[in-house]
Amino acid sequence: METREMSESMEQLEKDVILNSEPADAGSAVVESEENVKQGNKFAGLDKDGIINALEEALQKPVEEIKDDVAAMKAAFSLIRKGEIEKEKAEFLEKGNEESAFAIKDDEKEARFKELLNVVKEKRAQLIAEQEAVKNENLQKKQAIIEQIVAITNDPDNINRQFTKVQQLQQEFKEVGPVPATSETEIWKLFQQTNEKFYDLLKINKELRDYDFKKNLEIKQQLCADAEALDEVEDVVVAFKKLQELHDTWRETGPVAKELREDLWERFKNASSVVRKKHQAFFEERKSIEKENADAKTALCEKIEAISTDGLKTYAAWDDATKQIINLQEEWKKLGFASVKVNKTLFARFRKSCDEFFAKKAEFFKTMKEELASNLARKIELCEKAEALKDSTDWKATTDVLVALQKEWKTIGPVVKKHSDAVWKRFNVACDAFFEAKKKLNNNVHAVEHENLKQKKEVIAKLYEALAGEDTKEGAAAVRELMTQWQAIGHVPFKEKDKIYAEYREAVDKAYAKFDMKGSRANLQNFENNLNQITTDKAYHERERLVRTYETKCNELKTYENNMGFLNARSKSGNSLVKELERKIERIKEDIALLEQKIKMIDEKL
Known about the structure:
The chain is an all-alpha fold. It is built from 19 helices and no strands.
């Protein structure tokens, strides 16, 4: 009888060892990954200062609670820093520097972040050291419990009395926390062997043993039923986690009768297999979906990268491109997660393209804002110039200036819409004021021109009267006076212009021929020919020169006329000097008359 019980005890302990030494399912790691994927990186929206502050706050918590947060912070900070380095390098290369000469600049915030990470590392190392110390302490406790059981086993005479004590020690052994991984299997085997030896030597009442078997059987049958019920749980992840808990309870539960062990274990194992297969199929399907999501996200990245901003020169073009970007972002939001390995990389790639687009858009709008402001300033300046000229009566010059201002207005780009109508109305009102006044004046021009025509005909008639005289000197003076009058008269009707001028020129030519004024006539004719060949700018300069000469001649004439009053014409020499001055005064008057005609000719050309 003792031999049979010892044999059954040995077999049960072997089964317990098998159950308790089952390797942990790899699905637990997958579940943890699933939770991490769902969580995402909650620090991705922070800048470096925000991440540093978050890490400083996290350091106030136990280090074992912030492990995932620290990893997320590192990823977020690394992404920001990487972007900064790439930007620095791009700017360095844009300046024409060699890529090999690029050196990453020190970053105080990065140094601070690394200091905080070192603190985390030190705390974690300290925690691990403390945990290892506790595990070593637990190992010593378990070794002490085993030594007590060995001591009881080595006293076979009193072994029956020690059954309760051994149960108590077994419970204490189970309640002791984890030990170093390198010693876990060895200490568990030693514990099983020690218990096996105890049961081999234990002379216990069979009814008590059967009672334990029965109690354990009820527990394990319920575990089987619970495992089989997991097949109905829709959430395979929850079902798998529950299965792990059932396996933990199975390992902690003692043996059952030998004849039931295999069948009971087979039932529990089959139920477990069903849940595990569903769990595996779920993650295989999710892996396939994640691949589809990764392909779809890659396609979105390629689409957004293909959107070129080089040809976007208008607000409408930027708005159309923005709609494309927003639509792609909406498509991105509809897609599920890709695998952990590529999801962050794809998101960073997509986010980078979006950020670059909106940065360029912001730069365009900033530039356009400055350009619109500049255009508004230029148009206001034109308004001020037009307003300063609206009351001018210098009709030709002002007309040219206003026409030039209108042409310049057309070359200026748009302004902000809220100012566009007002500034245009202001400019238009100023221009219209001048041209309306000019129009009213032109309505009277016809009558004035006919009056001028009448006056010029009178001058021609007087020229022919002068031709009737016999005194050459007086006749020449009269002709010059009439020529001066002619030049002072304004425009005549256009259709009469050539005819009246031909009549005037015929009379003048006859006067020049009769009174020997050919030199002046030739001079004037030559000047007229030259005037027809020069530009408007040169004509302006020539007029200024002639006016200066004219003023000089007028001053000379005044001086000679004053000197005439001081001469005594009674003396022979005085009479001779007076005649000389008279000749000079006459020549100066002729020069002045010629200058007046030339200036008048230039005015008619301008």
